[in-house]
Amino acid sequence: MKRTILFVDDEPNVLMGLRRMLRPMREKWDMLFANSGQEALDMLAKAHVDAVVSDMRMPGMDGPQFLRQVMREHPDVIRFALSGYSDQEMVGQSIAPTHQYISKPCDEKQLVTALEQAMGARDLVPNKTILDKIARVEHLPVLPEVYNRITAELAKGEPSPKLIGDIVARDVGMSANILKLVNSAYFGLPRHIAAPQQAVIVLGINVVRSVILSLHVFSSFENIGRVSFSLPMLWGHSMRTGAMARAIARHESLVKEDSDHAYIAALLHDVGKLLMEAHCPEECERVQTEVRAQNRRVAEVEHELLGLTHAEVGAYLLGLWGLPDPVVQAVARHHHPQSAQPGIGVENIVHFANLLDHEIFIFNEHYAKAEPSPERLDAIGGPERYAAWRQAVLSVDLGSEEP
């Protein structure tokens, strides 16, 4: 089935250039072109569109205003911002409604890869009701304590980028948002930035300030009377799993890129739980009731009752944001009993880092503990390697469970 992409720009030459550049994609994509935000909205009202790619600076309705309206009226449409380096002051306005940034002028391969990956990520969530809810999410939830610490540092006359980076690194949601932005095509960096501390230094205080000020989703947790799991425990689990993945990658002497991917995927592997808790509370409550009553695994019950798991929901949003495909796939499959890729790769490292943290740290005595499946053990070379990984992570300082 062909995908439909809508390109929006007030400059006819830009649209003509995109049409010409993307001619090889005509067999796979139906492409629409609009020269204003209003014309694009009229097209969206008449036809199904999979993704929009919008210029930032347009007369009348600018790019951020257009994308925000698309987010409200057509939440399942993937939203890209096409922007030049003179648009940096608009980054703060466009962060919320934008899934990814593409630099202008853009490279054909880069644009095609980003769109194909984002549209493929949506296929990870077969439940349309949950997809519509998650598609409206602007940012991952952030703990109020973390938000307050960063806000206090930003309020100083000369805030410290290193200190802000250290605070960001302690929070899963904030790390995801910062890494999303710094690794977008908009900044055109020659290599992937894996550490939040480095990302803060690269982005600069002003951009970070706009990111922090736009993060309102944390308030969704303040307004929930009852959360079905402990947020500090989830944060601790995510941080430890990231540390374990890094230790395993170091034990296996993985190249830096694979090691970074394993760390990021492990750090973010449970972001789907945050999204579902904030935006699908009734579904989460049904799942947790069954988990506690029957001593079953969360992912197993999610799949049975909802037709998907938090792993797929998290991978969906990370895919929309353009995180590397190995990260997206590792997050999506971290509960699968079978490995898609045999060997010592990112997917298997994240899977076993998650299992090891659940084995070493008891979160809830009512939750059934997952055991390594024979298929996954075979994929990494047998139980002996799993035992060696266990020893490797036990030698690491895994830090506190508190955020």
UniProtKB/TrEMBL annotation:
The yes or no answer to whether the keyword Coiled coil is present is no
Q: Which keywords does the record carry?
A: Phosphoprotein
- Give the sites modified to 4-aspartylphosphate: D55
Upper lineage: Bacteria, Pseudomonadati, Thermodesulfobacteriota, Desulfovibrionia, Desulfovibrionales
Under PROSITE patterns, the record lists: HDOD, RESPONSE_REGULATORY
Q: What is the originating organism of this protein?
A: Humidesulfovibrio mexicanus
The record ties this protein, via InterPro entries, to: CheY-like_superfamily, HD/PDEase_dom, HDIG_dom, HDOD, RNase_Y/CdgJ, Sig_transdc_resp-reg_put, Sig_transdc_resp-reg_receiver
**PANTHER family, per this entry?**
PTHR33525, RIBONUCLEASE Y (PTHR33525:SF3)
Q: Work out whether the entry's keyword set contains Disulfide bond.
A: no
Entry's Gene Ontology BP terms: phosphorelay signal transduction system
- Domain HDOD: from-to ranges: 140-337
Response regulatory domain residues are 4-119
What is the superkingdom listed in this entry's lineage? Bacteria
Q: What is this protein identified as?
A: HDIG domain-containing protein
